Amino acid sequence: MRSGRKKPSTYxxxxxxxxxxxxxxxxxxxGTDALGKAGAYALALAASAAGIAFAWRWYLPLPGPRSPAxxxxxxxxxxxxxxxxxxxxxxxxxxxxxEFFHRRQGQLNLSCAQCHDDNAGRxxxxxxxxxxxxxxxxxxxxxxxxxxxxxRRLRSCAFGVRxxxxxxxxxxxxxxxxxxxxxxxxxxxxxPAIRR
Length: 196
Hints:
This protein is mainly alpha-helical. It is built from 5 helices and 5 strands; from the N terminus they run αααββββααβ. The longest helix has 45 residues, at 10-54. It is elongated and about 70 Å long.
């Protein structure tokens, strides 16, 4: 830290790192409908940059770089590297989940896509077929009389089509959950939801 510069309080440090993040998230949460996806992302990046510019005086350099600018640059590079690594790690699971969603299975020889893509919104045994999104889970299901996980719902669905019920947390259900999360991108999170 430069000599003569007062050490910032913990709250000032927290504020300087949290403000850009919340600016980004808040604009995306509120502005997507009004501005469209591209406009909301552009405004979110601008809000995040404004937050960084406003809180610049509170940033502390990392031990390596000697200046706040070097510290911020190192943070951005580390964040981009982490994002790239995370995408590389998730990619095979996403593809496996997509394949699982479209694969016919069970004694009824049905795929998830046949119900939740082709027949979504249609009635089935006194209920309406959902779009197969996991944005409400964990959810309170009336048939369970308690809150249950998405994996519990996937097992119930497999039971309904007389297919193999995998264990909770199995690679098959984790991959399917990732695929369903990608399908639900842009849909409001409503957990804990209430389902029949």
